[in-house]
Every structure is written in structure tokens, then in C-alpha cells.
């Protein structure tokens, strides 16, 4: 395995397997403590126009671009793309594209994050059907503005939001722990 391999960068043993949420998801073989960095999401980086050109060319789908700033996206590499959305996730994307544990995650659990927390407030046209089996499943996931307020504030207060989302929501920047 070469040094640049995303799997090598992961501190935890992650694997792809069939998911009850849908298709394949990413699971952990190891216990992951709350706050730990699980993975760094990487891929081809560019503007929304650039992502749209990749979509038009049939190279990616509309769900493959991770928004990391107001007009910056990452076309996720295949492994990173495999993390499923959940309306009550156990992980979150923070800073620019770091996936961290939102709570302790047990061996064998699927690692999920809330896609909506990465979708800018202006992208109200983005919608995805959800059947994540969480008690509070929203059924349709859309931009960050559609996350119920109590859940959004939970993400915010626990430093589980991307920097640009905190700016978009007009919330004061919190001190990061550790
Ligand atoms: Zn859901």
C-alpha cells in the first residue's frame, strides 16, 4: 500500500459491507472514541461549475460532490463516497473534510454522517430520499437549513459542523476542543 492511499491514512480499520440503510456502507472493526478523527475525505477539488461539468460528463452523480466551502467541492474518491447518510449519525465532517466520531462507535457499527450538515444553506434544490431507520429520520434530506433546530444546535454545540456552515448559519465560532 503506498503512502498516499486514503486507507493508510485511516487510524482505524474500516471496511465496506452491505448496509441496512442502503447499498454498501463503511463499518469499523475497531472501537472509535468520541472526538477521534476517523478518516479524511479526499478527491478532486473544484467549484460547483466544475462539479457540474463532471456530472454532465457522467463521471460523478449529483450526490458525489462534498461541499466544503461556499463554492468549493470535493468529488469524493470511491471509499469516501461509501459512507452513508443518517439523520442520527455517529460521525460528522468538520474543519474542511475531516470525519470525526460524534459519539463512541462500537466495533461492527456502520459509520455515518448527516449529509445535510455538509450541504450549504443556498442549495435548497438538493434533495435525497432517506430511509436510515433512525427514530427521527427526516425521510427527505436536503440542505443544512432543513435540519431540525434542536439537532442543528446539538451539532453546533458539539463542534460537529464544517467551518463554512457555521459561517453561513451566522453562529459565533466555538473554541475547538483539543
Ligand atoms: Zn434518515
CATH architecture: Beta Complex
How many distinct helices? 5
Query: What share of residues are in beta strands?
Result: 25-35%
Shape: globular
Count of extended strands:
12
Mean pLDDT: 91
Largest sheet: 4 strands, mixed
Specify the structural class: alpha+beta
Give an overview of the whole structure.
With 178 residues, the chain is α+β, with helices and mostly antiparallel strands. It has one domain: Beta-clip-like. The strands form four sheets. It has a four-stranded mixed beta sheet with strand order 1-2-10-7, with no helix packed on it. The longest helix is centred in the N-terminal third of the chain and has 9 residues. It is globular, with a radius of gyration of 15 Å. The N terminus is likely disordered. The protein binds zinc ion. The site of zinc ion has 6 residues, from loops.
In short:
The chain is α+β, with helices and mostly antiparallel strands.
List keywords for this structure.
binds zinc ion; Beta-clip-like; disordered N terminus; four-stranded mixed beta sheet; alpha+beta; 178 residues; globular
What topology does this entry show?
Layout: H1 6-9, E1 14-18, E2 24-28, E3 37-40, E4 43-46, H2 48-56, E5 65-69, E6 72-76, H3 78-81, E7 84-85, E8 91-94, E9 98-101, E10 110-113, E11 128-129, E12 140-141, H4 149-157, H5 163-168
Parallel strand pairs: 7-10
Antiparallel strand pairs: 1-2, 2-10, 3-9, 4-6, 5-6, 8-9, 11-12
The protein binds zinc ion.
Residues 87, 130, 132, 134, 137-138 line the site of zinc ion.
Amino acid at each position: 500500500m503506498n503512502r498516499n492511499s486514503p486507507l493508510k491514512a485511516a487510524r482505524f480499520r474500516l471496511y465496506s459491507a452491505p448496509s441496512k440503510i442502503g447499498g454498501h456502507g463503511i463499518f469499523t472493526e475497531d472501537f472509535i472514541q468520541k472526538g477521534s478523527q476517523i478518516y479524511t475525505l479526499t478527491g478532486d477539488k473544484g467549484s460547483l461549475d466544475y462539479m457540474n461539468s463532471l456530472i454532465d460528463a457522467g463521471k460523478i452523480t449529483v450526490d458525489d460532490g462534498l461541499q466544503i466551502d461556499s463554492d468549493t467541492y470535493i468529488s469524493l474518491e470511491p471509499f469516501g463516497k461509501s459512507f452513508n447518510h443518517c439523520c442520527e449519525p455517529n460521525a460528522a465532517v468538520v474543519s474542511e473534510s475531516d470525519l470525526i466520531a460524534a459519539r463512541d462507535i462500537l466495533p461492527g457499527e456502520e459509520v455515518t454522517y448527516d449529509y445535510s450538515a455538509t450541504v450549504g444553506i443556498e442549495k435548497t434544490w438538493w434533495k435525497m430520499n432517506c430511509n436510515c431507520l433512525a427514530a427521527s429520520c427526516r425521510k427527505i434530506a436536503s440542505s443544512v437549513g432543513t435540519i431540525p433546530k434542536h439537532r442543528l444546535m446539538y451539532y453546533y454545540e458539539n463542534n460537529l459542523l464544517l467551518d463554512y456552515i457555521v459561517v453561513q448559519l451566522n453562529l459565533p465560532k466555538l473554541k475547538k476542543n483539543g
